[in-house]
Amino acid sequence: MKRIVAGQRRKWKLSAFDCVNVLLMLMLLVVTLYPFLNTLAVSFNQATDTVLGSNFIWPRKFTTLNYTNLFEDNTIYNAFFISVSRTVIGTITSLFCTAMLAYTISRKEYFLRRQISFLFIFTMYFSGGLIPGYMLIKNLHMNGTFWVYIIPGLIGAFNLIVMRSFMEGLPGSVVESAQIDGANHFTIFLKIVFPLSMPVLATVALFVAVGQWNSWFDTFLYNSSKQDLSTLQYELMKKLQSASMSVSGNAETLFSNSDNQQANIVTPTSIRAAITIVAAVPIIVIYPFLQRYFVHGLTLGGVKE
């Protein structure tokens, strides 16, 4: 009888814990999901109605005028192509170069591995600054070229450390077996280490792709005078600035217009919401395909057996 009562108490305690855990996770879900749903609703909501305020997750007065205003400029499409190109090319080249260097400094027989690792870690704490970086790009004659998006960010120190830690956790016997069979280091890297490193490669690919896709400051610095090399994020930033400058006055000025005029008005808030959704959708689409590697790629290299 006592055992039955004790078992029931344990089940009740477990159920209570599960209930609290579910409630906490639901609260976290709401806190995490609400800002995105609100932004999505604002992007499809009539601008003058959004000025009224109050929080909502569903458009009260549905309209696509915000997106129409955003995409009526033809430069957006060329900028989208440049952003996709820099994201794809930058991610692939960065992955390959970072992985090769990570393999090199992960090999214990390489006597300069500690010195090279220190040089890269040092750049995570200290940088040359904006002006020396600009002068370097200028002296390399990369101003006004597409490669200014690719070459400066070819190898990231944090991504290098993550890859190196993962590769150090790979079984050494696999590499030794390949060396006994006569394989050189490049063959070992391409046919053994690279395929085994897919989890960390997917994780780093997500980091690099998000950074490349969201980057606009390098366009502002180096290619602002080259319209054919402008990126989507830079064009969206300019669109937001122009929308902010075009709307003057306060809410009373907006509501003094007729209903038909109000329906054709955009505000910085509505344009900002539409820009946020446009910028976020490609990453949201890609992330589910890489999510299963994400946690695995970050944690597996940290365990040594």
TrEMBL record:
Q: Which Gene Ontology cellular component terms are annotated? A: plasma membrane
Return the InterPro entries for the record: MetI-like, MetI-like_sf
Q: Where is this protein localized, as stated in its record?
A: Cell membrane
UniProt xrefs under PROSITE patterns:
ABC_TM1
Q: Cite the ABC transmembrane type-1 domain residue spans from the record.
A: 80-290
Topology relative to the membrane: Multi-pass membrane protein
Chief place of localization: membrane
One Gene Ontology BP term is: transmembrane transport
* Domain of life of the organism encoding this protein: Bacteria
Which ranges does the record mark as transmembrane?
12-37, 76-104, 116-134, 146-167, 188-210, 271-290
Question: Which UniProt keywords are listed?
Answer: Cell membrane, Membrane, Transmembrane, Transmembrane helix, Transport
Give the PANTHER family listed for this entry: ABC TRANSPORTER PERMEASE PROTEIN MG189-RELATED-RELATED, POLYGALACTURONAN_RHAMNOGALACTURONAN TRANSPORT SYSTEM PERMEASE PROTEIN YTCP
Q: Which family would the database say this protein is a member of?
A: Belongs to the binding-protein-dependent transport system permease family.
Know the name of this protein? Aldotetraouronic acid ABC transporter membrane protein 2
